[in-house]
Amino acid sequence: MKTAFFIDAGFYLRRLNKLRGPQTASQAVETLLRMCAVHLELFQRDQNQLYRILVYDCPPLAKKSHYPVSKRGFDWAKTSTFTWKIEIQNALRAQRKVALRMGRLNDADGAWVIRPDKLKDLLNHKIQFSDLIDADFTYDVKQKGVDMRIGLDIASIASKRLVDQMVLVAGDSDFVPAAKTARREGIDFVLDPLGATVPPDLQEHIDGIQTVMQPTPKAPQPPQEGS
Q1: What is the pLDDT of residues 62-100, one digit of tens each?
Q2: Helix, strand, coil abundance in the chain, percent, nearest 5
Q3: For residues 61 and 201, what is the distance between their CA atoms, to the nearest angstrom?
Q4: All structural domains of the chain
């Protein structure tokens, strides 16, 4: 009997940064593999009962652009983020029983978006628009084909009964149809939201929630003078 993992890489990397802080490419890959191994241990399964770890991602942004405030030009392909993502994807391709499934970026519709904390400050009149700098913005670009590939693979593997258990690492209610399909085929369908809030409609159509990655403990603060 086999277990398959379906991992939304974008979701995983965002949650990893929140839980553990900035990670090198090798650390991100090692943590992903360890996370899957811990799941198997909790299910009382060994590595021979692993069907495959399917990881879904997109190529990193590689076009030329301009910063939103200074208007300075730069090349995304020469940024540390680009290099980091390429290193992660190459490392995943080299792992046994790991399959990297690629979508694409809809970079034509990408746009700079003000960070939520700065937007809040603007709305509360704590700052003015003229106070904003380039670092107060993030570049928002949507993935295409990732959710669809996850859903299709879940449905295909379930219909062929290649596994008896699936673990989805994601947090999107778009996966409800795929989860329902797997459960109708008798598959034990487990969600690992990495500590994120689970949408009620997704929670309704899974067999359980199991998160194994814990946040890095914060270092104790030194006592304040006079305390």
Answers
A1: 888 899 999 999 999 999 999 999 999 999 999 999 999
A2: 45, 20, 35
A3: 32
A4: 3-63+73-104+143-209 (3.40.50.1010), 107-140 (no CATH)
Instruction: Return the CA Rg of the chain.
Output: 20
**pTM to 2 decimals?**
0.87
Q: Where are the alpha helices (DSSP H) in the chain?
A: 9-20, 25-42, 80-93, 116-123, 146-159, 176-184, 200-203
Between the CA of residue 93 and those of 54, 98, 103, what are the distances in Å?
Answer: 11, 7, 15
Q: Cα dist. 56→68, 92, 104, 149, 199 in Å? A: 30, 11, 10, 8, 21
Measured CA distances, 129 to 134, 135, 136, 184, 195 (Å): 12, 13, 11, 53, 35
Q: In the numeric block, which tokens belong to residue 218?
A: 């914060």
Total residues found in the chain within this entry: 227
